[in-house]
Amino acid sequence: MATQLGATQLGATQLGATGFGAGVNALQALVLAALQGATELFPVSSLGHAVLLPALAGWHLDQAAPIFLPFLVMLHLGTAAALLIYFFKEWWLIALGVLGLTDAHQKQESRRVFLLIMVATVPAVVIGVALQHFIARLFGTPFAAALFLIANGALLLIGEKLRSRGRRSLDMITIRDAFTIGLWQCLAFLPGISRSGATMVGGLICGIDHEDSAHFSFLIATPVILGAGVLEVPKLLHAGVPHGAFGISVMAAVAAGITAFASTAFLMRYFRRHDSWALAPFAWYCVALGLGSLIMLLG
After folding, report:
1. CB neighbours (10 Å) of residue 145?
2. 266: how many CB neighbours lie within 10 A of its CB?
């Protein structure tokens, strides 16, 4: 996720000390948004990137400020909108089936998929609520993000190594599989561990191929992101948030959504074509970025 935003106006106007910190402008907010949208669905941790970028770029942001997390959640809402649009036909069929407005076979399949999504979401909701204060403190820690990026790379490599060689598809996922994948998803509460990467590793270990693991990962992202939005976005409208912060946040969310939609389209094709080694390039990227960031932060 990203940093707190507050602004007196759009454009290059500098934010005050009560905003994101002196020297931060709307252009930087858009950079963070594009970064989040591009990296949220790639297995490289958008949160890790958003925490590291301001530190490495020398941006003076108050990452521990009260609206740090709500702003990041706004960016994720843009991502959720992109996922809803990309998978609109599938979500529409699920909705019709859950409401009993389709034929018997489609109703049964839609309700099965809906149940799987809900089961996979439960661990994130429970653990997220229980550890929310501890998690929030980690968000603004670049050193921790760099370490966890390295850990994320190792996780992806381990997932490829331990993956079951079965060829189970999305329609073969069980309740147990969904819950297991949901538990893996909780690793993403650590800044630097990718949500999509962790859930894909869980899917691979359950014997699901890269494409369907990614597909299920993108589906279960939506309720988690929307739930976080319900809890956090109202904070942007209260608690003395600087004038203009909500408008900049909405603008950034749109930018994040556009990049997220393009990322989803690319990744679905990528995982379909590179099933035997798909996560390896992302793993080595995370290790290199994490090590490079540590060197810069400690230098």
Report:
1. 29
2. 13
